[in-house]
Design brief:
- This protein is of the alpha+beta class.
- Among the domains are: 90-173, no CATH class; 360-543, no CATH class; 546-736, Mog1/PsbP, alpha/beta/alpha sandwich (Protein Transport Mog1p, Chain A, 3-Layer(aba) Sandwich), CATH 3.40.1000.
- 52% of the residues lie in helices and 13% in strands.
- It contains 32 helices and 16 strands.
- A seven-stranded antiparallel beta sheet has the order 9-10-11-15-14-13-12, with helices on both faces.
- Helix 23 runs antiparallel to helix 28.
- The protein is globular, with a radius of gyration of 28 Å.
- The model is unreliable at 381-387, 510-519, 531-548, 630-635 and 637-646 (pLDDT under 50).
Length: 738
């Protein structure tokens, strides 16, 4: 989220100023002109904070930088839509790996992690490369050459160490709806300008489109309404520029939803229905809002009159939905409603993709399920990956143990939302709808940018003050260094903050709607959710503590991986293992992948010097399965014949560290009687605030058949001679079985 404390401080200052303005407004101490003038200042300030252009440099102090393109989003949304006819939802990473290999076979790293989008498993790039002919077959020569040129544009914008050893092939692929695919794909395949010019223009378009919505609101309902919309949109910490800014039209659903609410407030029912349908089929979760409106109109006494009154909205929504589904299918498949041999029917394919992802919770979601799936002992996994396979399994396990109270809480929250909708104006569907989304549809945190739409439907200063306080609390929770090593806990707190806010905002609904039971239900729902998801002294069916699995002596030995290492007697083993249980020696690479869970993220074993904490000397051993045919390249990596590859392999996982440099160039050495390679790096390890701990790290690479070992030895720089001697003794104790 916010990498700069200065940008976050500016955001907090703007929210405090807004709170003061709303308090004065409630007391009658500020007129319309003064409000317009104040918001005309606050909205641009919030926009600057949102962009994150203020940077804190330890040497240069406060500086301003240009907002960077979001290459991760551009990679998925530009390539994913431009070449959807060939890639579908499952081929992007295979095509990327193949193009990388064809363009730079020497720099290709077969053991680097990648995700197989057909089953959502993390594998290595060699596995995807072996499977890539099925994706390549969908391209003709002209389109394949174009894909490689476009990929090269993105590759050249990154250092080779990042692209070759991490890149973007570990995410979950392109997974937007067929409507997004149709619209963005048509734009991406335009031939008027070169792709580099197109991307340079399109990545800055979102703020202009959002500003245009603000102009529309100002023209229809006054400058205060338009400026309030823009301020709260950009002052929302969850509207995360670091995730979706500088990308490829990522706010299209939000713009359509804003227009739907504006049209509904103006009683332009046909326009509202059309915009609700577009917003919903762009990003699915907005479908909740027209569904709630329909339920309100058909339930209870007087339903015929309500349904007759709002029939234009529901009819426009239904007709537009049909046109969107059919039209997007025809565009994506090139004229075939049910797909063809080259391109399957896109909506069923999209449903399969989303179903696959629904079973893989991610670490940055905000929803009711997040606090229910929280357990302190699994939070450690987000320190190094934020969503690894082991973390996913443990998250499911904790949520399954709390399934009954979770389902009850879901039902209560949906009931509260339905009760709150009774006899309310249609545009106020936003808050009950958000409560339903929170209860039933886990969303990545940046989709909660929709909180910025609240000023479009709520004008009461008291309730806007509540929104301001929510954004302040969210901003404080996002402070750099605060909970940054406990992502589970941070997003649990985010989720509870939003839940409490939505329930408090619905109490006025109950009063004005003359349904007092709703207010009580909201309070009961809040208490139930907080109590049910509060961690017990001993979480039910929680994963066993890794501490119980640590070696009892000084020697760590594993038959499954075939090595042993001895720690100094005074040092302690750390709970950072990817090998919780041992077993028989694996015979092939696939078996090793079963044994070693996310080897790039979790070491097999780790230990540290006593009393120094996280800043002291530390040793980690990782095991990474390779293919037998990689043998020649592996030998090159550990000798002077291809030193830059070894440098890249070692530096890639550390690219985020400050001042990362090669202190000693790679050189061949001998470890456990085997040819090995050694490199020494130095960097600054980030600490709270803007401080950094100077670190010197020795890294050894040792190859054995289809398994490679990485031995990492890090200590504060300059390394104390006694620590260096201790590291030498530890390295001598490392033994690999034949």
């Amino acid at each position: 989220m916010f990498a700069s404390s200065s940008s976050l401080a500016l955001l907090i200052a703007s929210l405090l100023a807004c709170a003061a303005l709303l308090i004065l407004q409630r007391r009658g101490g500020v007129g319309d002109r003064a409000r317009i003038a104040a918001l005309a200042v606050l909205a641009p300030v919030a926009f600057v904070a949102h962009l994150g252009v203020l940077r804190d440099d330890p040497e240069e102090g406060l500086s301003v930088r240009e907002p960077l393109p979001h290459f991760h989003e551009i990679f998925h949304y530009f390539l994913g839509t431009r070449y959807f006819a060939e890639l579908g939802y499952t081929g992007l990473y295979e095509a990327t790996v193949l193009a990388d290999f064809e363009d730079d076979p020497v720099g290709f790293v077969p053991g680097a992690p990648a995700r197989d989008l057909r089953d959502n498993r993390l594998v290595d790039r060699a596995t995807l490369l072996a499977a890539s002919p099925r994706t390549r077959a969908a391209f003709d020569e002209e389109r394949w050459s174009a894909f490689k040129r476009d990929l090269a544009l993105l590759r050249e914008a990154h250092v080779p160490e990042f692209w070759n050893h991490r890149g973007y092939t570990v995410d979950h692929g392109y997974n937007a709806t067929p409507l997004v695919t149709a619209v963005l794909g048509v734009l991406a395949n335009q031939s008027l300008v070169e792709p580099s010019v197109f991307l340079g223009t399109i990545r800055i378009l979102d703020p202009y489109l959002l500003a245009l919505v603000g102009v529309v609101v100002s023209a229809l309902e006054g400058a205060v309404a338009g400026l309030s919309f823009l301020f709260f949109l950009f002052a929302n910490p969850l509207n995360d520029y670091a995730y979706i800014g500088g990308a490829y039209l990522r706010y299209n659903y939000l713009i359509a939803l804003a227009l739907a609410l504006i049209a509904l407030r103006q009683r332009w029912l046909v326009a509202s229905g059309i915009c609700f349908a577009i917003a919903g089929w762009l990003r699915i979760f907005p479908l909740v809002f027209p569904a709630l409106l329909l339920l309100r109109d058909v339930a209870g006494p007087g339903w015929r009159g309500r349904l007759r009154e709002n029939a234009p909205l529901h009819a426009a929504f239904a007709i537009t939905s049909l046109l969107v589904v059919v039209g997007s299918s025809l565009v994506v498949t090139g004229g075939s409603l049910f797909g063809n041999a080259k391109v399957p029917s896109p909506w069923p394919a999209f449903a399969r993709t989303i179903s696959l992802h629904a079973n893989s919770p991610s670490a940055n979601r905000i929803a009711l399920e997040v606090p229910f799936s929280y357990a302190p002992e699994k939070d450690r996994h987000t320190e190094t990956g934020g969503g690894g396979d082991e973390w996913v399994a443990e998250t499911r396990k904790v949520l399954d143990a709390r399934k009954l109270p979770f389902r009850i809480a879901q039902g209560v929250l949906v009931l509260v939302a339905l009760l709150a909708m009774r006899r309310r104006p249609g545009e106020e569907v936003l808050l009950p709808g958000l409560l339903v989304v929170f209860a039933l549809m886990p969303l990545s945190h940046y989709y909660w940018a929709v909180l910025g739409l609240i000023p479009l439907v709520i004008r009461d200063p008291r309730r806007l003050l509540m929104l301001t306080f929510l954004l302040l609390v969210l901003a404080l929770t996002a402070l750099p260094g605060f909970l940054s090593e406990s992502l589970d806990l941070r997003f649990t707190i985010f989720s509870l903050e939003i839940l409490i806010f939505l329930l408090l905002m619905l109490v006025p609904f109950a009063r004005s709607g003359r349904s007092p039971i709703t207010g009580r239900a909201a309070l009961v729902a809040g208490a139930l959710c907080v109590l049910a998801c509060s961690p017990a002294e001993k979480p039910v069916d929680a994963p066993p503590s890794v501490h119980e699995q640590l070696p009892s002596g000084d020697i760590y030995s594993t038959t499954a991986l075939g090595f042993s290492i001895t720690k100094p007697a005074s040092w302690r083993f750390l709970p950072e293992t990817s090998l919780p249980t041992d077993g028989e020696r694996a015979n092939d690479r696939e078996q090793y992948w079963e044994i070693v869970d996310r080897p790039a993220l979790f070491p097999v074993i780790a230990f540290e010097a006593p009393g120094a904490g996280e800043d002291g000397p530390r040793v980690r051993v990782r095991a990474i399965p390779l293919r037998p045919e990689d043998s020649d390249q592996a030998i090159q990596l550990i000798t002077s014949r291809a030193p830059q590859q070894y440098v890249g392999f070692a530096m890639a996982p550390r690219h985020r560290h400050l001042n990362l440099t090669v202190q000693e160039e790679p050189a061949p050495v001998e470890v456990s009687g085997r040819e090995a390679g050694k490199i020494v790096l130095s960097y600054g390890l980030r600490r709270e605030g803007d401080s950094a701990l100077p670190v010197e790290e020795r890294i050894y690479f040792v190859r054995r058949d289809v398994l490679s070992f990485w031995i990492e030895m890090a200590a504060p720089a300059p390394m104390d001679p006694s620590v260096a001697e201790e590291f030498d003794r530890i390295l001598e104790s490392f033994q690999i079985e034949p």
